[in-house]
Specification:
- With 453 residues, the chain is an alpha/beta fold.
- The protein has two domains: 2-209 and 396-452, Ribonuclease Z/Hydroxyacylglutathione hydrolase-like (Metallo-beta-lactamase, Chain A, 4-Layer Sandwich); 215-391, 3-Layer(aba) Sandwich (Rossmann fold), CATH 3.40.50.10890.
- The chain has twelve helices and 22 strands.
- The protein has helices at residues 64-67, 70-76, 86-105, 118-127, 217-233, 247-260, 274-284, 314-317, 334-343, 361-366, 400-410, 422-433, and strands spanning 2-8, 17-22, 25-29, 56-58, 81-85, 129-131, 137-139, 148-154, 162-167, 172-175, 199-203, 238-241, 268-271, 304-305, 320-324, 349-352, 373-374, 383-384, 388-391, 414-418, 440-443, 450-452.
- It has a seven-stranded mixed beta sheet. A seven-stranded mixed beta sheet has the order 7-8-9-10-11-20-21, with helices on one face. The protein has a six-stranded parallel beta sheet with strand order 14-13-15-12-16-19, sandwiched between helices.
- Helix 3 (86-105) runs antiparallel to helix 4 (118-127) and helix 3 runs antiparallel to helix 7.
- The protein is globular, with a radius of gyration of 22 Å.
- The protein binds zinc ion (2 copies).
- The site of one zinc ion has 4 residues, from loops.
Length: 453
Amino acid sequence: MISFIPLGGASEVGASSFYLNLNGTGILLDCGLHPRKKGKDSLPAFDLIKDKDLDFVFISHAHQDHIGAIPYLIKLHPHVRIFCTTATKELASIALHNAAGILEKEMNQHPGMIPYTNDEVDMLVKSIIDYDYGEEFELSGLLSSCTIKVSFWDAGHILGSASVLIESSEKTIFYTGDINFSTQQILAPADLPEKKIDILISESTYGAIDSRNLPDLKTEVRRFVKETNKVLADGGSILVPVFSLGKSQELLGIIAGEIIAGRLTDSTIYTGGLMRAYFKMYDKFRFTTRRKNKNFLFSDVIQENHSAIRNLNHFDNKNGIVLVSSGMLLEKTASFEMAKFWLNMKKFAIFIVGYMDESTPGFKIANSSRGEKIKLTDFSKECIVSCGVQKFSFPSHSRREDLIKMIDKLKPRSVILVHGEEDGINWMGRKLLARKNELSVSAAEVGKELIFN
Ligand SMILES: [Zn+2]
Ligand SMILES: [Zn+2]
């Protein structure tokens, strides 16, 4: 018998964590934090498994909404064994060390959370067991007599990202993690196993987005180049808020590639913070992961460190393209301060290239236009948008039609939809159920157990 219990990341993006019990072997698929919740609310609902067996954790990739809660999980389940790809293990080390530092500084904002130290992160990362894509490994839980065979499949989302294939004597389960079937600037699209799947646990991030609003990469790069050249020719600087892992690398890849091709004006490129540590990882793993151009090295791209710049007028005197995290321009970050400065500058522009949650300052800027009055936060003063604002789409998740194609290829008997908002999950569900085949479709809900015999 197989039992499936979502602990988080079911009908939303954040705190992804799904418990599976396969004939006595307890598994957790991902163990993330909710990026916009505070304190205990940001953790997966670990209480739901406090009396259950937990043997293994399989981590799909190193984004905080998939790994951020591991340091808390191991306090509750110290004997659990954690598995991921080799690249994810190294990225997780950077991400968790960084999070430990932030948590220590912001402890008063996280009621009920016990901070963890950098030493604990070191011990935790050392204990992670890593495998390459396609390598099969066998496991059996402490109280189970059955063996399971597990392998990671390139999910094409960020460096090291993987879908997880679990084969038992009764059922084959495939968990997509965050998956992307389109080629990005750096990464190759997802790779699927040639296997018949029984239970498919699929993300549905873009389920609510009409794919006609997701232009192909070439068209969008052309538009990005055209708009960037306009601002640079005018003497302005462009602020591009990006997530430090994934989007930063894709964007710097695009910018460097277009400058080399002679289409984008050669200007100063500013980067800073954590993204720089991730550039090194992308370089390190370029030959061992599937990607478009293995010879491209981030270390060959001349970059100025914006973290070292104290006076923001610098960007007026030496204009250029500025890649900055946080990706959603959250308050109390350097990018928030930069955005405030940018909004006052007529010749400057802010380019939005990724997802913005409705509650964030980034969302307010993304949905504003020149001359409009906006309030970045509830407590900030109203300001006029003097700079240009443009939106671009460089998706790192699959289009919804590609998810349906994946389901057609893997031919599962059951599909569980996770990691999406209600509208998206509903679109996917309706599309699948309209086919009138034997497929059973479930929308995951935190705490709602699904049983498969
Ligand atoms: Zn992700
Ligand atoms: Zn995610």
